[in-house]
Amino acid sequence: MWRVFVALTLALPWLLPWTPTGNASDRETLQVAVVLAGLDDADLPITLVTVTPSSASRGAEAWITYDATGIGQRIFVYTGSDMFRCASRPLRMRQCVIRLASVLVHEAWHFEHGPKEEDA
């Protein structure tokens, strides 16, 4: 039992940034983009996060985690990106919502087909 406690204690700081976050406005922004992208029936596992992983490229807006076989597990959307902030209220600029929708379509493709960027 103590091993489980130690494992959770060590893992907790690493897991906290990846827990679902987002206020109602951020979730609304995501929903608007999902509908615009035509992905509302896709039931994709999308999580809003407030930090990017250290391995992410500079300016990352969204990314996917994969299992060991290359199957997509979850799509993460960074709420601190300029694009997401621009798509959110009070600005809610149309071109930013369209850009967010296109990012979601791109990530949805990766989720279904794998990590190869040249195919996306």
- The helix/strand class is alpha+beta
Helical amount = 40-55%
Q: Please, what is the average pLDDT?
A: 84
Shape estimate: globular
- Our measurement of the CA-to-CA distance between the termini, rounded to an integer number of angstroms, reads 45 Å
**Alpha carbon gyration radius:** 16 Å
Structure explained in plain terms:
By secondary structure, this protein is of the alpha+beta class. Helices cover 45% and strands 13% of the residues. The protein is built from four helices and three strands. It has helices spanning 2-15, 24-37, 82-87, 94-113; strands at residues 46-49, 62-66, 72-78. It has a three-stranded mixed beta sheet with strand order 1-3-2. Helix 2 packs across helix 4 (94-113). The longest helix is centred in the last third of the chain and has 20 residues, at 94-113. The model is unreliable at 1-21 (pLDDT under 50).
Characterize this entry briefly.
This protein has 120 residues and is an alpha+beta fold. The chain is 45% helix and 13% strand. It has helices at 2-15, 24-37, 82-87, 94-113; strands at residues 46-49, 62-66, 72-78.
Features:
45% helix, three-stranded mixed sheet, 13% strand, alpha+beta
List the helices and strands and how they pair.
Blueprint: H1 2-15, H2 24-37, E1 46-49, E2 62-66, E3 72-78, H3 82-87, H4 94-113
Parallel strand pairs: 1-3
Antiparallel strand pairs: 2-3
Helix pairs in contact: 2-4
